[in-house]
Specification:
The complex is a heterodimer of chains A (about 240) and B (about 260).
Chain A lengths: L1 H5 L8 H25 L4 H17 L2 E2 L6 E2 L4 H28 L7 H26 L4 H30 L7 H34 L5 H6 L15
Antiparallel strand pairs in A: 1-2
Helix pairs in contact in A: 2-4, 2-5, 3-4, 4-5, 4-6, 4-7, 5-6, 6-7
Chain B lengths: L15 H4 L2 H17 L5 H17 L4 H7 L4 H13 L4 E4 L2 E4 H27 L2 H10 L4 H30 L8 H30 L18 H24 L1
Antiparallel strand pairs in B: 1-2
The chains are: A mainly alpha (about 240), B mainly alpha (about 260).
Chain lengths: ~240, ~260
């Protein structure tokens, strides 16, 4: 079910709509490349690679929901936004999707624009906006950070799923008629569960990283620019 | 998607397809897929022609039909979706074997099955004949922004570390009596995930700094580039497949 939402196979959405979203995705990625270059320093470059590898890996790990049949994979938009920021984060997710499409046939190449729009653009943007907002509103404690990561991950997964429903409504190749509402409902419910799983994993990972190496969390860096991060000694810390 | 590791798909061999420079193969694969997707779904013969093209390239690349078919299993969720369509679809209905099926849904299912399968086959052929390293070189030569190839390079580099480490941690948990089921396995998994991530990062950071101190500037050295960029002849050779596919697609559009 989840693969359905996220890694759209060739022929699910018609050509013109796929082309439209390819243009949208390309424009968004061009902006991310521009802004991402400013962000990418010696600390962020390996982090970006690791986040991409991490997202790639967790997208391969399927975990069961209701033990029966339905299983899904995580998207990783929130963790990318949290650790490497929105620009590089979106690029990381896009790289994952491109490599999966090129070497796994996971998701049609012609449908890449749709997937990138859903997961890399929508997912990361929603997650980062929520992170920026919640980190300012919630108390600056570990619990606050955990709640922020959880909510951002949960919402971004559901929004990405709804992105697919929107795309299907615009250009699904098979007319579902009244069943489109059913598709939307199924997608929302199943992704609510995936979102909870994703939220838990995002929260624990981010909290662990923030506890040991707070300087690595991009979202926290933006918040307290005045305070110098704990100096990471070159070549291994502990 | 539970499909092993990146390198798993590469088939070590020496064939005309393996020898083609990666950028040529990527461009040909993308162009082929676009042609397939642009084909009207009622032009059944066109999909047969595409399948024939795939078979010819697979034979040239020495990729067996069995390998291609087993690896196509990645497409299964979509196949299930496709089979549901005739029942869910709206509009005119037809009777087949006593079942009332939607005509629109049947066409939709055919559309997804045919185009999806051809797309998966094209990607698999690319993966089978191109190492991941070559893939990055290819993307770089196709003028992919450096920041993107850089992220992709590190991603592929760290993937081995992450996957191996995660597998070891899972085995360690299970061998200590953990029986992961339902949502509870998330707890164990997530608790390990934070540690896994940090360990991998610190290792990755050291690797990165070592690379920087040896003159890495964000682009892989020329040694990686191998035999060099594609010649005009190689471009022409590889272009035959997408050009044939585009001809088929254009004919199909005109005829329907």
């Amino acid at each position: 079910m989840e693969t359905l939402a996220m890694h759209i196979s060739n022929g699910i959405i018609n050509g013109p709509v796929a082309a439209l979203f390819a243009v949208i995705a390309l424009a968004a990625m061009a902006l991310c490349v521009q802004r991402g270059r400013l962000d990418l320093d010696d600390r962020l470059a390996p982090m970006a690679g690791l986040v991409a590898a991490f997202v790639f890996a967790v997208q391969m790990l399927n975990f069961p929901i209701f033990t029966a049949g339905v299983s899904g994979h995580l998207l990783g938009g929130a963790i990318a936004a949290m650790l490497v920021g929105p620009w590089v984060g979106a690029l990381c997710i896009a790289v994952v999707l491109v490599v999966q499409a090129l070497v796994f046939g996971d998701g049609g190449v012609a449908m890449l624009g749709l997937s990138i729009t859903n997961m890399a653009v929508l997912g990361v943007a929603v997650a980062y906006l929520l992170i920026a907002l919640l980190l300012r509103v919630l108390p600056r404690t570990t619990a606050g950070l955990a709640v922020t990561a959880f909510v951002a991950a949960l919402v971004s997964v559901v929004v990405a799923a709804m992105g697919f429903v929107l795309q299907y409504w615009l250009g699904g190749t098979a007319d579902l008629g009244g069943n489109l509402a059913g598709l939307a409902g199924t997608m929302a419910v199943s992704h609510l569960f995936i979102g909870i799983g994703e939220g838990l994993i995002t929260a624990t990972t981010v909290v662990t990283v923030a506890r040991v190496r707070p300087d690595l969390v991009y979202a926290l860096r933006a918040l307290k620019p005045a305070q110098p991060a704990t100096v990471p000694t070159v070549g291994g810390v502990r | 998607m539970g499909a092993g590791h990146v390198h798993v798909l590469y088939r070590e061999a020496d064939s005309p397809v393996h020898r083609l420079p990666p950028e040529v193969k990527i461009a040909a694969m993308v162009a082929f897929t676009v042609a397939v997707v642009a084909t009207p779904r009622v032009a059944f013969w066109a999909f047969g022609a595409y399948a024939l093209l795939v078979v010819v390239v697979a034979a040239l690349a020495r990729v067996g039909p069995r390998w291609l078919l087993t690896r196509s299993a990645i497409e299964l969720p979509f196949v299930l979706f496709a089979f549901a369509l005739p029942f869910l679809g709206a509009g005119e209905r037809t009777d087949l074997l006593g079942l009332s099926l939607s005509v629109e849904g049947l066409y939709g299912a055919w559309n997804i099955l045919a185009k999806g399968t051809l797309g998966v086959w094209a990607s698999l052929l690319l993966a089978a004949t191109t190492t991941t390293r070559d893939l990055i070189v290819g993307l770089d030569r196709l003028r992919c922004p450096q920041i993107v190839t850089q992220i992709a390079t590190f991603m592929l580099r760290y993937l081995d570390v992450l996957v191996g480490e995660a597998r070891r941690m899972r085995v360690a948990r299970i061998s200590r009596g953990d029986d992961p089921r339902f949502l509870w396995q998330l707890g164990g998994f997530a608790a390990g995930v934070g540690a896994l991530f940090l360990r991998a990062f610190e290792r990755g950071e050291r690797v990165y700094l070592a690379m920087v101190s040896r003159g890495y500037t964000g682009r892989m050295p020329p040694v990686w580039q191998g035999a060099g960029a594609a010649t005009a002849g190689q471009w022409l050779l590889a272009a035959t497949v997408p050009v044939l596919a585009a001809t088929v697609a254009a004919t199909a559009v005109v005829l329907t």
